Amino acid sequence: MDVAWEDFGWERLGNGVGRRRLPGWDATVVLVAGAEGVLLYDTGATLREGVELRRQAEALLGRRVTHIALSHPHFDHVLGTAAFAGVQVYGSAGLTALLRDGGQGLYGDAVRQGVPEDEAARSADTLVVPHHEVHGEQALDLGGGRRVLLADLGPAHSSHDLAVLVPGSDGGPPVVLCGDLVEESGDPQAGPDAVTARWPAALARLLELGGEDALYVPGHGAVVDAAFVRKQRAALAERFAVA
């Protein structure tokens, strides 16, 4: 299952687990490979970016992505999903209806952030909504003993935040995919759909999922540890006056 992640511009995080920081907005995507299935966490900011990710995943692993988990409904994390035909798409509870009705808003957000209008329009027009919604927590079996846990932690950074726990294997640490609940390359961004009063509690839940030894993968920036997540939780609680 080990592959030369670095040859493709990816960072290896463990056996069959790697991530890439995409250009433009420094959004992170993560691949998790089991013996039978391959999970991709987030799909990039445009359909073109999704196509590139699909090709890289197939070159890295020699097979196709079978499952996608969307961390939250912001354009730089979801607009590449249509590039992956036939996959099973997962999102937090309520995300399907939100994305089904929200393509125009994602188009507008993408254009305001510098995506060319025609590219943003193609990406929004082909937007794929989740086939499966996670209520609470849901295990996903990728085969060969690799089971990941999808956890609905929203609303917090956004109206619908989905984290993923990848248990450690071969002596390696667990890996927690945080989406934009955690950001390392800048201060956490609270947009109009953020529910700031619940954000610190979502970070506390991330720490419960991963524990002290886990690698925490933020939506933007370098991989961090539990101490960083605790510090960011405290800063958010102070910033938003949460007890």
Automatic annotation (TrEMBL):
Any GO molecular function: hydrolase activity
Database matches in InterPro entries: Metallo-B-lactamas, NDM-1-like, RibonucZ/Hydroxyglut_hydro
Keywords from the named record: Hydrolase
The Metallo-beta-lactamase domain, residue ranges: 26-220
Pfam families per UniProt: Lactamase_B
Keyword Hydrolase: yes
Gene3D superfamilies registered for this protein in UniProt: Ribonuclease Z/Hydroxyacylglutathione hydrolase-like
Protein name per UniProt: MBL fold metallo-hydrolase
Organism: Streptomyces globisporus
